[in-house]
Amino acid sequence: MFPKPVTTASERPADPADLYAALDLGTNACRLLIAQPKGSQFHVVDSFSKSVQLGRGLEKHGSLSRASIDRTIAALNVCRRKIKHHKVRHMRLVATEACRRASNGDAFMRRITRETGLTLEIIRPEEEARLAVISCAPLVSQHTRQLLVVDIGGGSTELVWIDLSSVAPLERARAIMRLRSGLGKNATGTPFPGAKVVDWISVPLGVATLKDQFDDVKEESARFALMSCHFEELMCDFLPYQLACGGSCGANNAPPRKDFQIIGTSGTVTTVAATHLGLRRYDRNKVDGLRMTSAQIDAVIRQYLALGPEGRRRDPRIGRDRQALILSGVAILQTLMRIWPTDRLSVADRGLREGLLYAMMSADGVLEDGPI
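The chain above was modelled as a monomer; its predicted structure follows.
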């Protein structure tokens, strides 16, 4: 088991010169991490996460609503105060799918700067996928020769397939970290020795956008099946999907391979893991790095369907905000587990923010060159 990449609040005040901030404004949530380098990892000093539902109504109207913008501005002002309080000097603040797709996304970025003083950048899908992969590096097994990293977001789902077969087992996690300069390329455009990105895709469906497309289907089992089929249809251009399914839709009947690993990072994946563990209060130390079987994931999905909307809303591991999105999330997850030759999923409680921090610190040379 690899060490965890983050820890709890710092024991003593951090030197502002050592601090880095990473902000991820997604379709559903606004998240901030402030951390300092510690060995080959980082140490969290402060954090913030708020459900802002920025993408609510985006699928229907094509633009961000006034209410969604107001909620997001309020959350970003909290982030600004935290960054100012800690006197952070190194930061990267990014927005993803909702702002990429919205007709008023650029105008919203200007309003954020005007009203909060923060400057956010709308990153491309490739950048989002790369950062998700980097964040998961510590969870890569030494036995893994083929790796699929899946990031189920609110507005899109990123999948990256990486070939590690030419990398020495002890170097496989570090080979993933070298992708900080691009998906398979370094600054000069030369492919990295070792980790090879076979293919990547950004499917324009996440938990919010997939849910919105099938809101008119009232029967939950039917809605779940339709969401799963629709998501799979949009992966036809992903080369590893074509190889797994022989160019046709449906489950892969090949036996599970011990050298193939899927790492899933998202609120959907961590919620499923918390439900499987029976946690009454979420515990990152128990969830991050957990390996779940397909049978265990299917059992949780059946439980969610049996609970119904009101039961899921009362479940403390799902909650009122997430219950409307969890079915679309697990429809995506079950589809992915059905397609590829594995019966296990590695759960990652990490994502874009962690990837941003790793990339910034690594580029600045402040991480020690020790085991990841």
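Residues 66-86 form the longest helix (21 residues).
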